[in-house]
């Protein structure tokens, strides 16, 4: 029987201490307890467990008289690998859907509030909608889900309500993602704050999946052993990827039906190679001031040069956006191609794992490879991590602050165990080694500001330049340095002036 992912939960959800929140334990599980509603296995078939700790936010008891609390988001079908649903009309046999449903019903019961959701067809409309609401004083939405690169400028330009104006928020509580939030501060300011309500920060953490059937057919080393011995490096990654390349039809070109070393998309693969190597395009000094340091980092430039040389090898990289479709559906097709033994590695989000449930061949999960054996640890790369921010309109801040804390705490109580202890452990992964790997990935997740909030100025143009395979990255980045520095300075000015 697979072990439970207690270690993963501890790593995932920042530092869990007894004094971090006001826990309570119930003598018996009720119908709304996460352990019942999430659909755990029969207690007779499991090992005895201690009573779960329940996390309770430090907010006043309140009766909001049935007041509406509306959360805006993105149509869930937009990205199948993510969890975009805020609520469901009825309980479900799917453990995560059930957990979300029962989380919300408990909150409604405890605070006499009516939770509502409204989905927009495209994520590109969420920031526009937020800004329109702020300008018009439209209080339709209390929270709006935005991709982080859109939430960041919205927080700086006043479209989002500053956290300081919202009562009861306590970012030290364990349902906040401390490591991620710390990496996203600027000049000591908390611009964005992720809580466990923001499940996609976990699902959009990039890792490396490997196909065990393709691995065995090529007689390659066990990647799990490499990880544990500290020898899972970019050198080994490229070496193994090259060794499986096969032009199956012998036509001299690579396409559908051939075997690739790496199946991915440029926005998933390229930045993963520098983030996994503990290198950032933007770094922060001791005063928390960010700078665009990539053009002056020999290590960063060397990583791009090596990546470029590897990309010149025919069959090393299956670019889903070119071989399949240049949209999110291309990612899903890439997952299917990996499941059909189309390649050894699948570099992508943890959320992709849910799309591999019917894969016949076994697969494993790995952290991103280290730069070299001297690097002390392995990393995961958090990318877009959609989160909820508050439109800067006339709001009932008592309701707002209470709901934000309660949604974070109850997500920790309901949704996190349902996904990590049950769905990810028992339904999606294929071995206990993957659980250990996930612990490494989430415990050491990294956020590069140039890869996320300043994506449009740094990562996206650099990604396009890498695809050209021309090299000369130092001169390219220095040519674009002026506009990037101006963007960063503008953000600093908005926070410090």
Keywords:
D-Maltodextrin-Binding Protein, domain 2; four-stranded mixed beta sheet; 2 domains; alpha/beta; 15 strands; 497 residues; single chain
Structural description of this entry:
- It is a single chain.
- Strand 8 (282-284) and strand 9 form a beta hairpin.
- Strands 6, 7, 10, 11, 12, 13 and 15 form a 7-stranded mixed sheet that branches. A 4-stranded mixed sheet has the order 4-3-5-14, with helices on both faces. A two-stranded antiparallel sheet has the order 1-2.
- The protein has 497 residues and is an alpha/beta fold.
- The chain has 19 helices and 15 strands.
- Helix 1 (6-12) runs parallel beside helix 16 (432-443) and helix 3 runs antiparallel to helix 15.
- It has helices at 6-12, 34-37, 95-111, 124-136, 148-156, 178-183, 200-203, 212-217, 223-229, 234-243, 266-275, 298-311, 320-323, 328-339, 397-428, 432-443, 459-468, 473-479, 481-496, and strands at 22-24, 54-56, 67-74, 113-120, 143-146, 205-211, 260-264, 282-284, 290-292, 317-319, 343-349, 363-366, 380-382, 387-389, 445-446.
- The protein has 2 domains: 6-202 and 384-432, D-Maltodextrin-Binding Protein, domain 2 (3-Layer(aba) Sandwich), CATH 3.40.190; 205-382 and 456-496, 3-Layer(aba) Sandwich (D-Maltodextrin-Binding Protein, domain 2).
- The longest helix has 32 residues, at 397-428.
């Amino acid at each position: 029987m697979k072990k439970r992912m207690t270690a993963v939960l501890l790593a995932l959800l920042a530092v869990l201490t007894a004094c971090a929140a006001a826990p309570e334990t119930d003598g018996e599980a009720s119908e709304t307890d996460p352990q019942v509603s999430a659909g755990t296995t029969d207690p007779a078939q499991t090992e005895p467990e201690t009573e779960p700790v329940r996390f309770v936010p430090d907010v006043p008891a309140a009766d909001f008289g049935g007041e509406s609390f509306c959360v805006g988001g993105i149509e869930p079908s937009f990205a199948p690998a993510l969890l975009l649903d805020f609520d469901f009309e009825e309980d479900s046999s799917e453990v995560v859907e059930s957990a979300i449903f029962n989380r919300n019903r408990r909150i409604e019961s405890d605070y006499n509030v009516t939770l509502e959701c409204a989905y927009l067809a495209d994520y590109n409309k969420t920031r526009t909608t937020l800004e329109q609401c702020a300008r018009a004083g439209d209080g339709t939405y209390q929270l709006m889900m935005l991709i982080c690169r859109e939430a960041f400028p919205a927080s700086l330009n006043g479209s989002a309500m500053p956290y300081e104006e919202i009562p009861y928020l306590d970012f030290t509580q364990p349902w906040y993602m401390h490591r991620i939030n710390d990496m996203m501060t600027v000049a000591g300011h908390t611009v964005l704050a992720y809580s466990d309500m923001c499940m996609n920060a976990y699902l959009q953490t990039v890792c490396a999946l490997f196909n065990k059937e393709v691995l065995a057919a090529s007689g390659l080393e066990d990647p799990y052993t490499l990880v544990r011995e500290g020898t899972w490096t970019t050198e080994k990654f490229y070496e193994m990827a090259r060794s499986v390349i096969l032009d199956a039809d012998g036509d001299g070109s690579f396409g559908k039906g051939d075997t690739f070393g790496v199946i991915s998309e440029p926005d998933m693969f390229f930045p993963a190679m520098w983030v996994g190597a503990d290198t950032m395009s933007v770094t922060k000094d001791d005063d928390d001031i960010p700078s665009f340091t990539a053009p002056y980092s020999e290590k960063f430039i060397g990583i791009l040069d090596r990546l470029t040389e590897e990309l010149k090898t025919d069959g090393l990289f299956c670019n889903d956006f070119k071989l399949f479709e240049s949209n999110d559906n291309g990612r899903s097709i890439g997952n299917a191609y990996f499941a059909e033994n189309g390649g050894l590695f699948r570099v992508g989000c943890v959320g992709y794992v849910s799309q591999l449930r019917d894969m016949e061949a076994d697969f494993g999960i790995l952290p991103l490879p280290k730069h070299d054996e001297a690097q002390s640890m392995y990393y995961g790369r958090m990318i877009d991590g959609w989160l909820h921010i508050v439109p800067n309109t006339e709001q009932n801040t008592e309701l707002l602050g209470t709901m934000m804390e309660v949604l974070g705490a109850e997500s920790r109580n309901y949704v996190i165990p349902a996904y990590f202890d049950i769905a990810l452990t028992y339904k999606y992964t294929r071995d206990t080694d993957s659980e250990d790997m996930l612990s490494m990935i989430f415990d050491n997740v990294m956020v590069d500001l140039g890869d996320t909030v300043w994506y449009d100025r740094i990562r996206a143009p650099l990604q396009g330049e890498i695809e050209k395979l021309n090299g000369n990255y130092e001169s390219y980045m220095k040519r674009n340095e002026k506009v990037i520095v101006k963007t960063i300075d503008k953000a600093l000015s908005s926070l410090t002036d």
